[in-house]
Amino acid sequence: MKTLIYSKRNLKELLNDPISLIFIIGLPVFLLIFMVSLNKSLSFNESFEVENFVPSTIIFSYTFLTMFSGMLIAKDRTSSFLSRMFVSPLKAYNYILGYMFPILIIALIQTVILYIVGFILGLAVTINILYSIIFLLIISILFISLGLLFGSVLKDQQVGPITSILIQVVAFLSGMWFSLDLIGGAFKKVGYLLPFAHSVDLIRDIIKTNSINTKSLIVVLIYIIGITVLAILVFKKNMKK
Fold first, then answer.
1. Is the pTM of this model over 0.85?
2. Out of 155, 179, 187, 203, which could bridge 183 as a Cys pair, Cβ 3.0 to 4.6 Å?
3. Where do the structural domains in the chain lie, given as residue ranges?
4. Average per-residue pLDDT in the chain?
């Protein structure tokens, strides 16, 4: 109950910035429409085929949630809001979950809108889409937790540049723009050491074949648990300070 009450406050805070909400949803929609339409005309890359690019774009859109969540918690830290809140009986995990829950709602809205756009562009409507949404929301926790971790250690003005680097890393190492198999070597190995390519592979397999890539799922879950726990521990340390 304490977590839900704090979540309501954070949801109201997020809704007070509608321009950012429009940006984190509108930009991926534009990217999806532009690249899929261009590929239909030129047929230059199978990564941009609608069944491949829709899941890639959804996961890419979650990188903006990292920036969003990081700036929210960093703003609360620099404004001394959290310092005053620390007199409450809330624990560190209550705070982290209180930030996470409302941003998960935004992740769901992003996912649904991008799938609707994908259907318009020719993505087949199947039961696999419903299954994939469940796993996509799990993947979104990875990006939200990264943002909460960044926001717990960085200042408000530092979150933007750091998350901008993350956006580029996800774009180039997730297999979004091109298959990592095309380059291979160290580039592919680094890509699959991180969870982003595994996230894309996991969702693509669910959509195409209704099968779960167990290896990719395990890697993603390990990263989610590790980063979420680390975010809670860092936040707890800041509370003691």
1. yes
2. 187
3. 2-240
4. 87
